[in-house]
């Protein structure tokens, strides 16, 4: 059996902690033979545990403590700590592993509730589970979500060479907002979501760049954002935003502008990778 889970790009500007998009980079785990001890084969480096301390197994065993140990092969195309939801992909894969091995018959609603409790916010785990664009919230342990198709858009991700842990990037955010600022910030988010749901990418893009919740505080952690925004706009992009907690910068544009924007950005020689992505429409995939 293999389980694959897509990467996710959270926030889309003002949808902080509540909006995310599934994209076509995958974490895949393959269940191998039953053994006496859990063991994960992977090439993700020595800092990623190969035993029960790995987030995959921590999650699976939290959901179902008495699972039969197995050998597992793990392959991830999702770069770690870059703002593309690597930790959420593992949490979601762990929940699905417990679901399959423990025959738990979890529903989508069960999975999002468990995953949100572990991650703390639903914006990555929700699209990782369901695919597409997902708008979700969680309050008092109750999680709500709405899935929607993403309007047609080209997608480019600039993935810097350096890591930025979500926990570190959350440290720079303010503890409080005035009532006035909270109303202004959520009004921007409301219009951005309405534009996304009605397929108006030009308006959505404008609002996505007016975020007041997080990007301005995090901008100093990702110095490339300003230049990428300037260049992309000069060539007709809809929007640029910090993917999740960063440092990846996502660029959305009309499909026919993608090649030009990509080559303009390549000419800058930023240290990092420029990847053309597509929306994942499936979420968790299990193959027997
Ligand atoms: N395949 C994996 N197996 C185990 N842990 C992982 C894996 N991928 C990511 N992680 C954990 O998640 C951390 C990154 O999570 P985070 O800082 O939220 O960044 P992001 O989710 O944006 O990639 C890694 O440092 C590692 O601890
Ligand atoms: N809303 C969160 C999203 C974190 O996403 P990640 O991909 O960086 O883990 C935040 O902005 O902190």
From TrEMBL:
InterPro entries: GHMP_kinase_C_dom, GHMP_kinase_C_sf, GHMP_kinase_N_dom, GHMP_knse_ATP-bd_CS, Homoserine_kinase, Ribosomal_Su5_D2-typ_SF, Ribsml_uS5_D2-typ_fold_subgr. One of its GO terms (molecular function) is homoserine kinase activity. It catalyses: L-homoserine + ATP = O-phospho-L-homoserine + ADP + H(+). It is found in: Cytoplasm. Residues 56-131 form the GHMP kinase N-terminal domain. Pathway: Amino-acid biosynthesis; L-threonine biosynthesis; L-threonine from L-aspartate: step 4/5. Keywords: Amino-acid biosynthesis, ATP-binding, Cytoplasm, Kinase, Nucleotide-binding, Threonine biosynthesis, Transferase. ATP binds at residues 79-89. Its EC number is 2.7.1.39. The keyword ATP-binding applies. The keyword Nucleotide-binding applies. Residues 192-254 form the GHMP kinase C-terminal domain. GO terms for cellular component: cytoplasm. It is an enzyme of class 2 (transferase). GO terms for biological process: threonine biosynthetic process. It holds the Pfam family GHMP_kinases_C. Catalyzes the ATP-dependent phosphorylation of L-homoserine to L-homoserine phosphate. Belongs to the GHMP kinase family. Homoserine kinase subfamily. HAMAP family: Homoser_kinase (MF_00384). This is Homoserine kinase. It comes from Pseudolactococcus laudensis. The lineage of its organism: Bacteria, Bacillati, Bacillota, Bacilli, Lactobacillales.
